Structure formats: structure tokens, C-alpha cells
Amino acid sequence: MHHEPTLSDYALIGNSCSAALISKFGSIDWCCLPEFDSPSVFAALLDREKGGYFSIAPRAGYRSTQKYIPDTNVVETIFKTDQGSVRLIDAFTATTEERHTASLFPDLEILRIVEGISGEVRLQADYAPRIFFGRDLPDLKNHKALGIGFSWKENIITLLSTLDPPGFQIENNNARARADFTVTEGQTVIFSLSYSNQSPAILPELKETSPGRMRETISFWKNWIAKCRYTGIYHELVKRSVLTLKLLAHAPSGAIIAAPTTSLPEKIGGERNWDYRYCWLRDASFTTRVLVKLGFEEEAHAYMNWILHATQLTRPELQVVYSIYGHSKLEEQTLDWLSGYRNSKPVRIGNKADVQFQLDVYGEVLDAIYAYAPLVKTFDNDSKKFIVGLGDVLCKIWSKPDNGIWEIRTSRVHHTHSKVMAWVGLDRLIKLCRKYRWTDAPVKKYQDTAALIRDQVEMYGYNPRIKSYTRAFNGTDVDASLLTLSLVGYCDYNAPRMISTVNRVCEELSDNNLIYRYRGVDDGLGGDEGSFAICNFWLVENLIQSGRIDEAIKIFETALHCAGPAGLLSEQIDPTSHELTGNYPQAFTHIGLVNAAMAMNDVITKKKAKYEYS
User: pLDDT exceeding 70 applies to what percent of the chain?
Assistant: First the structure.
């Protein structure tokens, strides 16, 4: 029995190295091992036939609901049939470092526990892993008590279960294994999918210790999110966003990836399909601000260390995007054997944005360092040299046209947002020099350049005829990145030019209470795209800060209603159908949500407004 899930039917599990998407129909349809940007083992999300999956579901008709166990990244799916009901609990096992080193653990383990709730339910487990994004079939071997295994290169993947014999049967020329089984009330069946890159592989023990590993994983997440300082309005949504961010933070390196997926289309059937399993410096300042504000200091340190490390290969210049380990070359290639999500081709891996020039990145990084500064007494000499070096580069290049925050693949222009971010970079650097008494830095040069940039923005980046800042210098159209001018402190929320810009953006870019990032711009690609989710949250911050509380709540809740039952949001939203599009879930979107919720909370708490919150 096969269902066609949409993105909102998926929840994400992970262990801060790798992640998997599980549909409410019990199928793992996306998972790359052992790292976020490794080749996939399951990619049914991009091609049901060829991609591979691992599903556990009732054999007869059923209704299913999926949600996270509160305050965790453990997913619970309930299947109800006419004969009875069962619960499926899914997680990447997580434990503290101390426990991990004290006992023999596989490198990675996905634990799937089926529990009978009532009656008697007949289920089927269907395991069809694939090698390199479905290009090659594995050679599955049944090692009886040691599970069903296959290997490629130095990777070993093993599926164990507590099923009674005969358990799994290998079929389809060794590329798939199936098991039919029955669960009655109170009965438990456990499945463990583990990864090792050494021989012999360390296999987890199932019957005795897996329930304990699942309990430990649940308490690991509950203890982690308990550090979250936020208790205001929408706090469940904020916590879910933060838990999702933690899943997208790569623990070994500190990097935070944009999304765990590749090639989920911005428009169904279109060609705007990109690989987001990398780290964009563009997201740095908003991300750091959230981590510091919410009290996740360890993550903030790890992320900042990654930024300082990743940029070493390209210093003093920055590039737009890096791999989780700071590699600067991300060759873009097409996987033409995959049909794509709902036939949206091409499927790409790698990302050509690595060759673009985006001026705003310098401002984002300096703003991130400034947001991080309250946590550090001093920076070492090497870091200081790098930070001051960014200012020197900015002074040299701020007047050049660039590809802009949206990575336009046509010609470079003078983007207003990019110039503002150059100003932000110098502004933050001047403040850092004061804070850390870096007396040898050419602060006067930074001040003069910042003043010059501001003059240019006000002269060429604002069009008095349309009463708005414009997408590009001397332009006549707007773009949603202008909503950040107030967010980054370039101008006040209530500045007349800002208020009229917000109004203009609403007029020109809004559709069904959702905002596009731009319209009618030749960006070098065919077809349309959806509303850009984070832009809605930027708008919310502007509206709330200028006292338009009702409008802010309306836009905030419109975006929230597009999230699936698991509470996750993708990069874009179709304004007509409200369906999620683009890569999923997206870190940038969830960061926007957290910032907007905190801004609303601040304003509403101050006003002690008499609003009823659900």
C-alpha cells in the first residue's frame, strides 16, 4: 500500500552528523550516511522507484498521525486499522559523550520500535537501501543473527531486528528485504539500522538494551532543550525550531547546514532545484543572534569556530558557501537517473554558488562576530587578523556590483541590500575595535567608508518617486531583502523611509498574506518560485516594531499554518495552495521564525496587550 506524501507529511530525525526524513506513512524516504553531504542510502523522496527507502506500516488500510515526542527529536507515528492500533517510535540514537566512549556503540544507529497499542495488527517492513543516490544496487547478505548487511567502499550498513524467524527475506536479486509480522497489544518489535566504517562492524544489542537507548535518546533531547531561555508566546514553536536547528548543526565541525536535502523544487515541475546540504555564510548573523539570545553558548562557540576555520582556505576573501568541513569547491553535477521530487528535474548535487561574489557575506560574518562578542573576552591574534582583514577587503570591494543575497545567476548589479550589509560590516567592526581596544586597526578609514556607503545608499538606493528603497541602485522595483535594513540596525523601524518601504514591499510582493522575495526579475532561470518563507518573518518583525500588531500576527500565523503536523517549514511556500516547496526543513526559515516570535514577545510583553494566545 503506497501513499504519495507531501513535504508537510515528513518529520526529521538526526544526530548532528546525519539526518533522515520519515513520512507519516512509516517510510524513511531520505537519508545520507554518514554525513549530511554524503551520498544517500534512501532517496525515495527524489524517486520512489530508484531512490530506496525503509518502510514499516500496516499491510491493510490504516489512518496515521505523526508527531514529535514533546521536547525531543524522536518521532512517534500512530497507525490505526480496523483490527487494532500500533505505535512506531523513530530516532537516531543519541547519548552523552561519556556514555558513548564508555560502551561500544556503532558510529550511527537509527532505532525503530513498533509497539502494539490495541488489538492485533499485521505489518510489513520493506527495506530497499541504495548506493550513491540510487545509482547502484546493494548486494544484501543475510548473516542470520548478525542481521542483513551490505557494504560499499569502507562503509558497512546493517539491519537487525527482534523478529521471530524467518524474519526478513531477501528478494529482488539481493537488493531488497521484506518481513511480514504481527503485533498484538503490549508486544514490541525492534529494528536497528546501524552504520560503521570499520570491519568488523560494531553491532548494537537489541532485545536487552535498545529500549534503554531509546529512553536515553529521549532524555538527551529533553535535557538539551531545557537550556532554552525562551518562555514567551509561541514557545512550543520556538522550541521546535531550535530542536530542528540542532539537527542541522554538524557536531564534529560546528557548521550549520541550510537544509538536509537536495533538489526539492522551488516550484513543482520546475528547474529551480538546488543542493542545500552546505553552509551559507549569509545565514551567519541571524543564526548567531538566535543561539546567543537563547542561551545555547556551546553551539554558538562551535559555529563561530567553524566560521573562523572554514574561511581559512579563501582568506582574506570570503565565499558564499562552504562544505561542513570548510571545503570551498562544491562541484555541481546532475544525477540524471533520478526522476526528481514529483518529476521536478534536474536533481543536482554540489552547488555553483561557490563561484559567486556576494558582497553582503562580509557584513553577515562581521555582524555574527559582533553578536558573538558578549561570549568572548578576547580573540586570538589569528582571528583578530582575519576580522580586521575583512574590514580592509570591504573598504576595497564595497563599490563593486555583486550577485546579491539571492544569488542571481545573471549579470551582477549594485544591490541595495549588499551595500547596506557592507555598511553593517564596517559598523560592527568599528564597535569590535572599541570593545577589544584594537588600536592598531584603521578605524578612521572604516568610519569614512561607512559614511560614504550610507550616502550612496540614501542617494541611489532610495527612489523618492515610489517612496521606497529599491532592489538595486537607481532602480524602480523592490525586493524583500530590503525588509532587513531595520533588522540589522541600518535604520530605525519607524524611519519614514523604512515605513514606506515596508508598505511598498507589501503592495508589490504580497500574495495571500505571503511574501515573494522578488518578482519580475530575470535571475537566469526559467519558471516561477513560491513565497520565500523567511521574508514573511522579516515582515512580521517590521510590522510588530512599528506597532502594527494585528497585521504582524496575521502574517506570522499564515506562515505557521503552512507547517506540517511536525511543525517544520521549508524554504518556500506556494501562496495559492499553501504547500511547502524548496528544501526541507530549512534552517534559515526556522531562524526567522524564532527571531520574529522573540520580537513579538518583546513588544507585546512591553505593551501587556490584551491578546488571547492559543
Answer: 95
SS (H, E, C) 281-308: HHHHHHHHHHHHHHCCHHHHHHHHHHHH
Mean pLDDT over each residue of the chain, to the nearest integer = 92
List pLDDT tens digits, range 169-213: 998 787 999 999 999 999 999 999 999 987 777 788 888 889 999
What is residue 262's DSSP assignment?
A: B
Per-residue pLDDT tens over the stretch 522-540: 666 666 678 999 999 999 9
C-alpha cell at 282: 549569509
Give 525's DSSP letter.
-
Which class for 333: exposed (0-12), middle (13-18), buried (19 or more C-beta within 10 A)? exposed
Give the span between the Cα atoms of 560 and 251, in whole angstroms.
28
What's the confidence (pLDDT) of residue 31? 98
Q: Residue 376, class by beta-carbon neighbours within 10 Å (0-12 exposed, 13-18 middle, 19+ buried)?
A: middle
Residue 23: C-alpha distances to residues 28, 56, 240, 307 (Å): 7, 10, 18, 33
- Across 445-495, where does the E strand assignment appear? 462-463, 468-469
Nearest residue to 182 (alpha-carbon basis) of 294, 76, 60, 66: 60
Establish whether the linkage from the previous residue to 265 is cis, with ω within 30° of 0: no
Cβ atoms of 273 and 346 closer than 8 Å: yes
Give the pairing type, strands 19-23 and 108-128. unpaired
CA 15 – CA 382 distance, rounded (Å): 32
Nearest to 555 by CA among 541, 574, 569: 541
Position 152 pLDDT exceeds 80: yes
What is the average pLDDT across 370-377? 96
CA 475 to mean position of chain CA atoms: 32
Alpha carbon distance 380, 390 (integer Å): 16
Closest CA to 66 of 84, 89, 43: 89
Distance CA 90, CA 192 (A): 10
Query: Among candidates 331, 325, 303, which has minimal Cα distance to 313?
Result: 325
Query: Residue 335 forms beta bridges with which residues?
Result: none
- In three-state form (DSSP H/G/I as H, E/B as E, the rest C), the secondary structure along 389-445 is HHHHHHHHHCCCCECCCCCCCCCCECEHHHHHHHHHHHHHHHHHHHHCCCCCCCHHH
Query: How far is 457 from 443, CA to CA, in rounded Å?
Result: 21
Asked if residue 542 lies in contact with residue 502, where contact means CB atoms within 8 angstroms, the answer is: yes
pLDDT per position as a tens digit, 544-596: 999 999 999 999 999 999 998 999 999 999 999 999 999 999 999 999 999 99
Is residue 330 helix, strand or coil? coil
Burial class (CB in 10 A: 0-12, 13-18, 19+), 82: exposed
pTM above 0.85, yes or no: yes
Q: Is the pLDDT reported for residue 296 higher than 80?
A: yes
